[in-house]
């Protein structure tokens, strides 16, 4: 009886977030998503600021997930929500990588920006 009670307390029953279910095996899923994202990022040019930024974030998070076995430790070290939220973020990032590859924001503009377009905010103070 006592063992069952202790085991039940150790298993997460809810995320406390409406519509976000507890993942049955979150760590391997997150490892797989991060590895897949890093693989997909290699299709973008090395000079892409988006690639560099996302690669740095995902590499850091991947190293945390690889080092730690405990879900609570992973969550607190990364500091970006529960592990289920991290899974959602990684899934969304995978979708965005595809979109960025389609949009190619690193390429020059098709039509040059009009003179003074970016000067509005220059020199203004808050």
Secondary-structure map:
Blueprint: H1 2-10, H2 26-41, H3 49-67, H4 71-78, H5 83-103
Structure, described:
It is elongated, with a radius of gyration of 20 Å. It starts with a helix and ends in a 23-residue tail after the last helix. Helix 2 (26-41) runs antiparallel to helix 3 (49-67) and helix 2 (26-41) runs parallel beside helix 5. The relative contact order is 0.14. The model is unreliable at 4-9 (pLDDT under 50). With 126 residues, it is mainly alpha-helical. The protein is built from 5 helices and no strands.
Query: With helices defined by DSSP (H or I, 4 residues minimum), what is the helix count?
Result: 5
Q: Give the SSE string.
A: HHHHH
Q: What is the residue-mean pLDDT, rounded to a whole number?
A: 87
The secondary structure category is mainly alpha
Give the helix proportion (percent range).
55-70%
Q: Mind telling me the C-alpha Rg?
A: 20 Å
From the N-terminal CA to the C-terminal CA, the straight-line distance is: 63 Å
Number of strands: 0
Task: Describe the global form.
Answer: elongated
Major β-sheet, in short? none
Fraction in beta strands: under 5%
Low-confidence blocks of residues:
4-9
């Amino acid at each position: 009886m006592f063992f069952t009670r202790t085991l039940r307390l150790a298993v997460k029953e809810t995320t406390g977030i409406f519509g976000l279910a507890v993942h049955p095996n979150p760590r391997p899923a997150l490892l797989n998503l991060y590895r897949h994202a890093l693989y997909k990022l290699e299709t973008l040019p090395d000079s892409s600021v988006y690639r560099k930024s996302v690669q740095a974030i995902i590499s850091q998070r991947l190293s945390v997930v690889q080092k730690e076995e405990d879900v609570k430790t992973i969550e607190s070290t990364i500091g970006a929500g529960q592990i289920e939220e991290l899974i959602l973020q990684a899934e969304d990032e995978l979708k965005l990588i595809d979109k960025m590859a389609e949009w190619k924001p690193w390429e020059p503009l098709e039509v040059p920006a009009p003179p003074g377009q970016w000067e509005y905010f220059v020199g203004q103070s808050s």
